[in-house]
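Pipeline run #58 for the internal structure catalog. This entry was flagged by the ingest filter as a single-chain record with no existing model, so it goes straight to prediction. Upstream metadata was stripped on purpose; only the residue string is passed forward. Reviewer on rotation: M.T. Logging verbosity set to normal.
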Amino acid sequence: MQKSNVTRPSGPAARRGLQISLAALSLVAALAATPVRAEYPAKIIKIVVPFASGGGTDIIARTLAQEISPDLGKSVIIENKPGAGTIIGTKTVATSEPDGYTLLLASFSHAVNPSLNDKLPFDPHKDFAAVSLIARSLNIVVVNPASKIKSIPDLIAEAKAKPAKLNYGTFGTGTSAHLAGELFKSMANVNLTTVSYRGAAPAITDLLGGQIDVIFTTVASAASLVGAGQLRALAVTTAERSPAFPDLPTVAEGGVPGYAAESWYGLYAPAKTPAPIIERLNKAVAKAVQSAAFKRLESNEGLIMVGSSPEALDRYVRDEEARWRELIKDANIKAE
């Protein structure tokens, strides 16, 4: 048999060449086995608002979309999906792909719905990934300017002197304004007759007309009327005084120690959304709440800007769930 004249390399150089070839093959195999992920975000992001357009939550969501869009480099749109006390819109996000392209602008209802509804079609914690607490907001206690009630002590004294004679207007079962009033009745130990309305506007109309005596309401619904002297503000419902109403005392200062009731706005993604996406969104929110647009909302909507970590939002909402659960049970409040 004729011998081959091909000389095969040997020694250290040959071994190094073999190692490089094997490494290259391994890298090619790894790249082939790993799906290519586009950098987030690669398309339009949608924020679901579980309320009709025009309300406080919708305004917050649209301002947020406007501010985070340039930072993220993609359009951010709003989809209003009202119904069933926010359950319809919230469920939409709970069942969406966890890819960061469908988000939820949640508010007070997210923390109280578990206590108002025996069976929710989602778990407010297991089915969602917290992104950031955007802001907290207050309610104000208002009366007709012709009323002899000029302060929270006056309101308490009048209510105790005439049990069940004073009418307290509320709107939306389980809303922050509703539960702020219920908390006041409980902590001040007074009996106010509850008159339910379908919204803030008809309740305020009756307050202006003298049909009811007092309302715990949102800043947006009453601030202009207070400024025009058509309503008298007695107090804010938060634990601290509001920069928007520095001269207004808190309900706690007015003789109900420990009283505090506030609403809030938080951003959520579906559970199992990758951590880098949550981090990217969180940073965008933190930057957005420092913007001039959000600063304007501080006075117009009675907001306190936050921009928290995901963990802080989760802790806050769990605390809110716990504090309202007992009141809802004691007052036998049920979803409409």
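catalog note: The chain has two domains: 45-136+263-330, 139-236.
catalog note: The CA atoms of residues 67 and 292 lie 10 Å apart.
status: ready for reviewer M.T.
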